[in-house]
């Protein structure tokens, strides 16, 4: 029974109702004096609390996508890292509707995929949305499609990018309205070494997460779908930790991505119980993963960057202004600055469409050598 299924939530709610009824009906029998009755009342209240917490937790998980399944919730890894070779493997097709139809000539196709690093140490699930224009194109023309890697936050699952952010729907809306070109979307979580939050860092003696996103992922996607490896055609965006990863990948690995957008992005890696020591006690490596330090102390690459924040409701708003002020040519920066918002899906929902359209507008392929509109404009939310 899936963790995020409606049936699971319904059964948990029925169980909570049954426990509540049992406690109400049986309470008079537990009202006597003495330790035996006291323990009985304590046990009944504890059982009721747990029974009510389960459906609430399931509903919260379904709404925010913290865990995709029971094994994810329990921190289990059932896949054998050596079961498949490196690269991208399609594990199924995600059926969805767009404008009332499931016809791939209108919706395109969403592949459920699993990507393994070249060293075989990292494996992660995700989704790839192939627009209908790509599906109809001959193989030699598929190299002309730009690619956007969309990352969720932490903790999260790739499904939130479909169900809450609605990346494929936003992309199709943008194409239909003439605001963006057909684009291949690669959607996954930055947590490729669960349950650890690696913040897209090549951890000394640990997961090489930055290398995975900058080298292994683009190589696997391009090889499987016949896409270009030209970094000018590749962009990356995300929210929260995913936004930090997106900006860092553009700044540190412009050989892989020439545009990055961060929604409510922190500008340095976290250091907490979920991350552990990401830098092996090396202060130089820690500085190299601090985005403001990078902008102020390293040559800036020819990349386009977008940051999004809110004047009220976002604690990183002052650092966002510092980030914008620190960008220098040949790098370029744009911003989405809301009057009010927060570190939540409602705010990101207002920012994702303009950020996605902005990002695609900064990507170029071999079929548009003149380039695209320059950075520096402010997208409208």
Shape type: globular
Q: What is the total tally of β strands?
A: 9
| Helix and strand composition category | alpha/beta
Order of helices and strands: HHHEHEEHEHHEHEHEHHEHEH
Total helical elements: 13
Strand order of the largest sheet: 1-2-3-5-4-6-7-8-9
- The CA-CA distance between the termini, in Å, is 39 Å
Average pLDDT works out at 88
Proportion of residues in helical segments: 25-40%
Assembly form of the protein: single chain
Radius of gyration: 23 Å
How much of the residues is beta strand, in percent?
15-25%
- Largest sheet geometry: 9 strands, mixed
Low-confidence stretches: 75-83, 369-375
Report on this structure.
39% of the residues lie in helices and 17% in strands. The longest helix has 30 residues. About 4% of the residues have low confidence. The radius of gyration is 23 Å and the shape is globular. α1 runs antiparallel to α2, α7 crosses α13 and α11 packs parallel to α12. A 9-stranded mixed beta sheet has the order 1-2-3-5-4-6-7-8-9, with helices on both faces.
Question: Secondary-structure map with pairings?
Answer:
Elements: H1 6-26, H2 35-64, H3 70-73, E1 87-94, H4 104-107, E2 109-116, E3 123-130, H5 132-136, E4 147-151, H6 159-163, H7 167-176, E5 184-188, H8 209-225, E6 234-239, H9 241-252, E7 259-263, H10 283-288, H11 291-297, E8 304-312, H12 317-326, E9 332-340, H13 345-361
Parallel strand pairs: 4-5, 4-6, 6-7, 7-8, 8-9
Antiparallel strand pairs: 1-2, 2-3, 3-5
Helix pairs in contact: 1-2, 7-13, 11-12
